Amino acid sequence: MTELHPRVDPPMAADEAAMLTAWLDYHRSTLALKCEGLSDDQLRLRSVPPSALSLLGLVRHMAEVERHWFQGILRGEEITVGHYWTEEDEDGDFDHVDTADVAADFATWRAEIQAAREAAAGLPLDTVGKRLRRGQEVTLRWILVHMIEEYARHNGHADLLRELIDGSTGE
User: Fold this and answer.
1) 142 CB contacts (<8 Å, ≥6 apart)?
2) How many domains does the chain have?
3) Alpha-carbon torsion 168, 100, 84, 114, what sign?
4) What contacts 57, CB < 8 A, 6 or more positions away?
5) Domain span holding position 93
6) How far is CA 134 from CA 87, 131, 137, 138, in A?
7) Do residues 17 and 117 lie in contact, with contact meaning Cβ atoms separated by under 8 Å?
8) What is the pLDDT of residue 160?
9) Of the four, 73, 88, 116, 171, which is 20 to 30 A from 26 by CA?
10) pLDDT digits over 12-68, tens only?
11) Minimal CA–CA distance to 16: which of 147, 124, 143, 130?
12) For the chain, what percent of residues have pLDDT higher than 70?
């Protein structure tokens, strides 16, 4: 269910595009590893009240983030409603995991990752997105660096959640 690509250490020497892409894939795979082998209920487990943070919530959130940056900003698609959020509940990705279809949510995340890879494939890093972010142009380079940061931050959350669930720690 959580499979993406096997986690591969990024190269120690590569051109910038290959390096950024490898680090992003590494962090995508790390989140999948943090979720591997857990039951649906374990994936839904919240961290500490009143937080809505859960591993499934992180997966759902990252599906939204992938879509926002690669389809919305880079490709310029109009995204008026999310997979999980609405204008009435902007945190739906985290709020509504209790009855969520775990397999479907992981499939959505994997599909958004594939769509992101396709959106960025072959583009120069200085390609400017077709939509502005806070009134400013954003390059593919910036998007890739931001996505690495986003996954790295949330993988820290995932590490703590996984330790809470079954004591597993590690990379």
Assistant:
1) none
2) 1
3) positive
4) 93, 94, 95, 97
5) 16-166
6) 18, 10, 9, 10
7) no
8) 95
9) 73
10) 998 999 999 999 999 999 999 999 999 999 999 999 888 999 999 999 999 999 999
11) 124
12) 96
pLDDT at residue 119 is higher than 70 = yes
- Within a domain: 2: no
Asked whether residue 11 is assigned to any structural domain, the reply reads no
Identify the helix (H) or strand (E) that includes residue 105: helix 102-120
What torsion, rounded to 10 degrees, do the Cα atoms 32, 95, 85, 121 define?
A: -10
Contacts of 5 (CB under 8 A, 6+ apart): 25, 28, 29
Residue 116 in any domain: the answer is yes
Q: Token digits for 112?
A: 């958004």
Instruction: Identify the CATH number of the domain in which residue 132 sits.
Output: 1.20.120.450
- Could you read off the pLDDT of 104-117 as tens digits, one per residue? 999 999 999 999 99
Quote the pLDDT of residue 5.
Answer: 61
